[in-house]
Amino acid sequence: MKLYDEIGGDAAIAAVVSDYWHRVSTDELLSPWFSTIDSRQLRFHLHAYLTVALDGPELYKGRSMRHAHAGLRVTGEAFDLLVLRLGESLEAVGAAPQNIHRVNARLSQLRAVIVEVES
Ligand code: HEM
């Protein structure tokens, strides 16, 4: 079964986006990356991000992850923190630990193409 469905489908994802949006937009280390884009774009980012992370029904068709993040100077620290915060949001909506682990494993594969500055 797809991670998306296992985590609870649309309803669970909507709850994750709300919770995650709050965590990211108030995070001291992460928020600067999103301060130049508006809140609608941040929600869009989170939604697209979750589509990639969970392999949902609307498969992501945007720019490649390398292209989308080129020049943003994303640090290793920020990357790890974003993944950690997502784990917390998934936990908050009741996702099983093994599913959170699968999401982490999938996102970790993108580390090398997104991170430009190793901190
Ligand atoms: C962990 C894995 C990540 C995934 C799967 C991911 C996914 C995405 C996606 C799907 C987009 C939209 C691309 C488009 O259609 O144009 C995007 C854009 C963006 N991401 Fe990420 N992202 C990740 C990590 C990060 C991190 C760690 C940061 C910064 C701390 C970040 C900051 C941004 C910003 C600022 C944009 C907007 C770029 C623009 O519109 O010019 N992302 N990301």
What descriptors fit this protein?
67% helix; Globin-like; binds protoporphyrin IX containing FE; mainly alpha; 119 residues
Q: What can you see in these coordinates?
A:
The chain has 119 residues and is mainly α. It has one domain (3-114): Globin-like, CATH 1.10.490. The chain is 67% helix and 0% strand. The chain contains 8 helices and no strands. Helix 2 packs across helix 6 and helix 6 packs antiparallel against helix 7. It is globular, with a radius of gyration of 13 Å. The protein starts with a helix and ends in a 5-residue tail after the last helix. The mean pLDDT is 86. The chain binds protoporphyrin IX containing FE.
How would the blueprint of this fold be written?
Elements: H1 3-7, H2 9-25, H3 31-34, H4 39-54, H5 65-69, H6 76-92, H7 97-108, H8 111-114
Helix pairs in contact: 2-4, 2-6, 6-7
Low-confidence stretches: none
**CATH architecture assignment name:** Orthogonal Bundle
Based on secondary structure, the structural category is mainly alpha
The largest sheet, given as strand count, sense and whether it forms a barrel, is: none
Give the fraction of residues assigned to helices. Answer: 55-70%
Beginning-to-end CA distance, first to last residue: 36 Å
